[in-house]
Amino acid sequence: MSPYLAAEDLSMFGRDPWWLVLIKAVFCFAFLMVTVLFSIVWERKVVAWMQLRIGPNRHGPWGMLQSLADGIKLMLKEDLIVKRADKVVYVLAPIVAAIPAFMAIAVIPFGPAGNEISIFGQRTTMQLTDLPIAMLYILAVASVGIYGIVLAGWSSGSTYPLLGGLRSCAQMISYEIAMGAAFASVFLYSGSMSTSTIVEQQQDRWYIILLPVSFILYIVTMVGETNRAPFDMPESEGDLVGGFNTEYSSIKFAMFMLAEYVNMVTVSAVSATLFLGGWRAPWPISGFWEGANHGWWPMLWFTVKVQLLLFFFIWLRGTLPRVRYDQLMKLGWKVLIPVSVTWLMLVATVRTLRNENYDFADIALYVGGGVLVLLLLSFVVDMFRDRGKQAEAPAEPPGFDPMAGGFPVPPLPGQELPPVPRRRPRRDRELIVSGAPDTQSDGSLDGKEASDD
């Protein structure tokens, strides 16, 4: 086996008694719920601060109980089911969206696997469980959650929810590919898909330093995965009223909102685990304090990293406007996927050369030469392609009729609106005496009527 492959030892998992497994599962659920309640208030406070407003300040100290009050209000509101809805799917859709959001936290490590803690006299790890394919498990449950949004849009029996569900489906397909490629780069460096092993492999250097492009790719894709601004096209209020959850109210709407924020916490936890050292203390602290990564302290560092990533979500929402849907698809298919696949090939090349015991200078020379050759080939191809386009006679663009379908529609890229008819210049109009007919502008009072007089 290659010396760069990690030796997985997952024997410490699966030995807990049933009551301890139940306690750890309840803790994971409580961690997500408390983090969601805090994140909602924090988002409203931060956005209010950005917009020079006060934000929530009535319920609880500093308004910290505002999200709890909103949740109680939603549960007490009237639950409506529209007539045209498929009632079974309509009711199950929020459940399908919410349950997978909680499942990914089961394989996230809150502390080192080798540093067991004591709970009621029982030694256990600070992780519910781990799998040799834990990251594939996370990708699987994240993909299942999208079915809740698609089914909600279809079962509502309305146009706008259906469009929102279809947008979410297309968005998920375009971003899951780039996300998987970003994960694959981490797998190549760590030699494992186990979350605890990936964190252990970041003992000397976090993967955000070794794989910065993978980190940026995952940050972009996780925003699209959670349908958050500026990629919140499935529920864009500007053109889809509310998107897939337009026809939902009361507890069903609350479950969709809960699923969104739980997904935010989950993808932030995955990002911290893969690229930010997971539960490990940052360098200035771990450098002079040996006990920073022992006991209950790792949970603190992990929580701080998750909160910083949640602040990034809030910062984006308060800063960037929503993009157009064609821009969203162009970013996913024409930018993220090619960049992620190219970066994955570079990472695989570097790892192969390292396994063959090449020096760093030789690796940099080979990889840099390959990149220069690709850039040169792309330049030559673009140059000949531009010459071919210039040789062709420019074709007339097809005419665009905004009222062709019976109602006004905006032009697509490359189409232009016809010129707007203007009134004749003011100097061409004669002075009309008050009470006299304007024979030049009024078609009904033409020369015929004048002759009748």
Automatic annotation (TrEMBL):
Q: What gene, per UniProt, encodes this protein?
A: nuoH
Q: What is catalyzed by this enzyme?
A: a quinone + NADH + 5 H(+)(in) = a quinol + NAD(+) + 4 H(+)(out)
GO-annotated biological processes: aerobic respiration
Q: Where primarily located? A: membrane
What family, per the record? Belongs to the complex I subunit 1 family.
UniProt keyword annotations, A-Z: Cell membrane, Membrane, NAD, Quinone, Translocase, Transmembrane, Transmembrane helix, Ubiquinone
Annotated localization: Cell membrane; Membrane
Stated name of the protein: NADH-quinone oxidoreductase subunit H
The membrane-topology field of this record reads: Multi-pass membrane protein
Which InterPro entries does its entry note?
NADH_UbQ_OxRdtase_su1/FPO (IPR001694), NADH_UbQ_OxRdtase_su1_CS (IPR018086)
Q: Do you know which PANTHER family this protein is assigned to?
A: NADH DEHYDROGENASE SUBUNIT 1, NADH-UBIQUINONE OXIDOREDUCTASE CHAIN 1
